[in-house]
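Sat 14:20. Reprocessing the chain from the morning session after the first attempt stalled halfway. Input below, unchanged.
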Amino acid sequence: MPRLTERLLNQNIDQDTCLARARTIARQLVLGEIPEPIPERDPLYFLNVVRLTIGELTEKRYLLLRKKELSSYVSREAERCLVNECSDRSLFQDLLSECRRTIPVPEPEPDRGLDRGFKAVDTYESWLQSWFSRPHAASYKKKCLEIPQKDRNALQERVLDTLSQFRHHPGTRRVWFQLLLFHERYEDGLASLLADEPDPLKCSADEKALIAASVADETAIPFLHQWTERLIEKRTAAHYKEAGNCLSLLEQAYRNHGRKSRFHEWLEILHRRYARFTAFRKELTAFENRN
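Finished this time. Tokens:
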């Protein structure tokens, strides 16, 4: 579930650490031992470890044999781990739902710290519900700048994650890209373009704005390599011209990150790879002469 993994990383939950802990717990359960307490008391970490432990026991074909022991362990650990503040309610609920498909996980008590951590989103719930019915970038930006910094991350994650799920609707996609640019979440937008848009010439103005801004981030480099070649493969004059624009962005990205020599090496690769694309090679030569 790569999307879930990305959201966990955004909350500084390291997947490798969680997986190591899950494997230890699974091994102890298989051996009939009582697993050690989970040292990290973050509720997102806890639920992710539980989720991964279920996966490990399933893979070892021990889940049915150790389900009762795992449930008892999780109930006991939940008393310790589901009391601290959590800034991302949406992610918490998704993890909780996934775990509950297999074993019972108790709800946190409503007056404990975890519930307090959800207030950042709950405080704006009525505004969010109204906004989601007709999302608009300007009103979101205004609201985001009005609220305390500590509340913005929770609001940002909730809004971007929800819009992402409906990004194939043109209006929603436009707002989503505007907000990705606002929050400088370039990687999410670039990944979506590679997955969703086979013809780069069909990019909207908002998508092009995010691509142009992304050169500040090193993740733009592999994207622009793929985007340029996708344009070249279309083999039309308009696509070749846009490929030249992408090369300008790619050169800027390489320069920003101190790797300009690598850009010139790639131009040589393009000359060889597309030696029979006469029209493109003319565009490529014209680009080199301009620079």
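The chain has 17 helices and no strands.
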